[in-house]
Specification:
15 helices, ten-stranded mixed β-sheet, alpha/beta, Protein-Tyrosine Phosphatase, Chain A, 506 residues, Udp-n-acetylmuramoylalanyl-d-glutamate--2,6- Diaminopimelate Ligase, Chain: A, domain 1, UDP-N-acetylmuramoyl-L-alanine:D-glutamate ligase
Length: 506
């Protein structure tokens, strides 16, 4: 429910000096709501957050339910006063924070943004802060924690009320810090306006395979706007290995803390040899050098670890506390998650060509053995993006099995053909629309030592095409492996040993 309320009385004239107030000299409120059906008595109804709605109808419904005023971008027919602002999304977020008495000012607030890797960087930072501070609040696409209760549902499209409420709960629960993953949707909807950040971590600025150039520019502009929400002592931490991000930082935030594996920067990592399921690297932070070991594989993961270390460095924490904190997190659901220690079977989201390339490259560098990839055809992608997905599969995987669990048969077939258009040898790709059967086929037909990557869904659940029952890659893979153990091994037929008759019978 998109509602903010408190005992604090907020003057809209003081809060929005550029606003035009019609029908009154000022509007004072204790609550605001974007849902006309859930307005509190004498609350302010916010209209215009979604242009597809009937704004006049929302005003009528809100007033009938007790709204005392309207917050909007344009003048609307209304029997109650209106506060007309230049940007209603920004105004709504600012009002939510004002009604909650700006909770981000009362605890350490860290924002994580970028085009890729935000979730992993957020969780690694949360693990590090929790080790030092005892508890932490966070909001990521994999879930949320309010500092007292973990496993809360989180939405990448959440609004200003949800963010403000989480920060307020974190403060009430005594959490010293809150980490917020700022998704592209949250940036574009200005859901974090009004939140003041101590640290902003920027993971990357490369264009997503799923977005066009216009959306990329919008996200970039939104990221620039968020950097203006730093507190006076605030700092920006960024991935110095990202060339485009490096140029962006030089133009807008030259006094930032950089981290990376390849670039010369403040926090640097040096790769060491992999050992079994673990990887190691040496981290240089200021004048300190320390080793770090993790079961999270891949150079992209190493950079996220360095990002968390850089935040600890910016906060003035001891290097041993920082390293112990990031080493606490040894598994992230759906992000190159290993199914079992006995087999090299991994689950990864990898729902775009660039993400799939990163995951396949990480497995190649980590183990070097052939990769059998069960790949879900990407959703809502252009023909060029689907062809790019096919090119990545053919180049990096030794065997490819395509599945289609998201769309109808006709739509799915068209998308599959477009993926095959990116392959020089499409006949080598196996098409098994039923994902459960495809996973079983990949596991049972793989050779000893092969790696198996189940790509496209991560930890999310999907519907079996035949039974229409919800499944997950982890559930199916675990069941197949269990069935393999229970099935008696086939004994090879004994070879007939020839009888050597050197001497004749007596």
């Amino acid at each position: 429910m998109s509602r903010c309320s408190s005992q604090t009385v907020v003057s809209l004239k003081s809060l929005f000096p550029r606003a035009q107030i019609v029908g009154a000299s000022d509007i004072e409120c204790r609550s605001c709501n974007a849902n006309p059906e859930a307005i509190l008595p004498d609350g302010v109804i916010v209209v215009g957050l979604d242009e597809s709605h009937d704004l006049a109808r929302e005003v009528v419904d809100g007033v009938q339910n007790g709204a005392k005023a309207v917050l909007t971008e344009r003048f609307l027919p209304s029997p109650v006063p209106q506060c007309i602002v230049p940007d209603v999304q920004e105004a709504y977020a600012t009002l939510c924070n004002a009604l909650s008495e700006y909770p981000s000012r009362k605890l350490l607030t860290i924002g994580v943004m970028g085009t890729h890797g935000k979730t992993m960087a957020s969780l690694l930072t949360s693990a590090m802060i929790k080790h030092v501070g005892g508890r932490v609040a966070y909001h990521t696409t994999l879930g949320a924690c309010n500092g007292g209760q973990a496993g809360l549902r989180a939405d990448s499209h959440c609004d200003a009320h949800a963010i403000t409420e989480l920060i307020q709960q974190a403060n009430e629960n005594g959490a010293p810090a809150v980490i917020i993953e700022l998704s592209d949707e949250m940036l574009c909807s200005k859901a974090a306006c009004g939140v003041e950040f101590d640290v902003i971590l920027v993971t990357s600025l490369r264009q997503s395979q799923r977005s066009d150039k216009l959306r990329s520019r919008g996200v970039e502009n939104a990221m620039q706007r968020v950097t203006s929400q730093l507190k006076k002592h605030g700092v920006i931490v960024y991935n110095a290995d990202d060339a485009r991000l490096n140029r962006w930082i030089e133009r807008h935030q030259p006094f930032s803390i950089g981290y990376g594996l390849d670039a010369a920067c403040d926090v640097m990592g040096s790769r060491l040899k992999n050992s079994g399921d673990e990887k190691s690297m040496v981290i240089r932070v200021g004048r300190s050098i320390a080793p770090v070991t993790s079961k999270l594989i891949g150079d992209h993961t190493a950079r996220h670890i360095l990002g968390a270390v850089a935040i600890g460095y910016a906060l003035g924490l001891e290097i041993d506390e920082i390293i112990a904190g990031v080493e606490r997190l040894q598994r992230i659901p759906g992000r190159l998650q290993k199914v079992t220690s006995e087999r090299k079977i991994y689950i990864d989201l990898a729902d775009q060509a660039d993400r799939l390339a990163v995951s396949l490259h990480a497995l190649q560098r980590h183990n070097g053995s052939p990769i059998v990839c069960v790949a879900e055809v990407p959703e809502a992608s252009t023909p060029d993006q689907l062809m790019a997905y096919g090119r990545v599969l053919e180049k990096a995987a030794s065997k490819v099995i395509l599945t289609q669990s998201r769309a109808t048969i006709s739509t799915g077939q068209k998308a599959i053909w477009q993926v095959l258009d990116g392959c020089s040898d499409p006949a080598a790709v196996q098409i098994v629309p039923n994902r459960e059967i495809a996973i079983e086929l990949a596991i049972r037909s793989s050779r000893p030592g092969d790696q198996i990557l189940l790509a496209g869904w991560g930890c999310s659940r999907w519907l079996n095409n035949q039974t229409k029952s919800p499944c997950s890659d982890l559930d199916v893979a675990t069941a197949v492996l269990k069935a393999e153990k229970e099935q008696p091994a086939l004994q090879p037929a004994a070879e007939a040993v020839p009888a050597l008759r050197i001497f004749g019978a007596a």
